[in-house]
Amino acid sequence: MRIRTVGYLIREALKSLRRNSWMVLASVGTVAVSLIIVGMALITVVNTNYLATRLESNVEIIAFLQGSAGDDEARALGAQIREIPGVAQVRFVNKDEALKEFRRELGDQENMIDALGGGNPLPHVYKVTTISPQDVDKVANRMQSFRLIDKVDYGKGVVDKLFAVTKWVRLVGLSVIVLLGLAAVFLIATTIRLTVFARRKEIKIMKVLGATDWFVRSPFLMEGMILGFIGALIAVLIVNVSYTTFTDYLHRDLNINMFGLHTDPQFMVMMGLALLGAGTFIGMVGSGISVRKFLKV
Q1: Nearest partner of 185 among 214, 225, 238, 217, judged by Cα
Q2: Helices (H), 67-199
Q3: Residues 235, 107: one domain?
Q4: Residue 251: DSSP 8-state
Q5: Domain of 271?
Q6: What average pLDDT does the segment 250-265 reach?
Q7: 47-84: string of b/e by CB count within 10 Å (b at 16+)?
Q8: pTM beyond cutoff 0.70
Q9: pLDDT in tens, 174-186
Q10: Positive or negative, the Cα torsion across 10, 14, 20, 25?
Q11: How many domains are contained in the chain?
């Protein structure tokens, strides 16, 4: 496409936008509000998945050995555990170390242990992490079959429930994104349709003189893309400022880091580009829908 043609398309689009300023404001506002909600929904879904992934990667298998297991044979069991496919790290905690850890956890209540008469009721323990979270069930079942192991415990059930919640968050977020996108397309299509209707005679003349559908359609597509881009730009600025302010407040003012929110600048840049692209695409689709029937002369 030649530079002169591009200039013509931009001039025509801007001229049309000036003629319909109130509808332009309504369309830009709708796109902005829709993409703000879409951005917030996207942030929620991404952070939920991020938190779930972090929790899943921290799943640890704890194997409690039988009380009759001696220290030497308990330590020897570590070699068998390391041979299990999928095992990443194995840490042995003998009963004396376990008792010391238990005392530290009790703090001021450690005198409760003295009531046991100096005995140590705790067993030897193995703490095992896997290469992949998907290996947890397999490794845990294999460890349970060892003669010296009395019980195997891990938090897989909690993570499974978390992923069930994540699935619903993802579905709801996707539904919101689709519905708001359709609403934005509808309003932009309405705005462009008014413009096209006002210029329907001009379009017929252009078609009779031999103008191609693409030449007639292009200014309106450009207009829709400008509307979508401006609305998306407003949404990106609001979402970025709001989210950055919120995370800074949690981390700096409240000193809360437990949520594990995404604070990577690259994440915000990618999300901003995605919203800008979505807004521009929504504007183009809305315009394409509006102008199509007027091309039939």
Answers
A1: 225
A2: 71-82, 95-106, 111-114, 136-144, 156-198
A3: no
A4: I
A5: 3-55+160-295
A6: 65
A7: bbbbbbeebbeebebbbbbeeebeeeebeebeeebeeb
A8: no
A9: 787 778 777 777 7
A10: positive
A11: 2
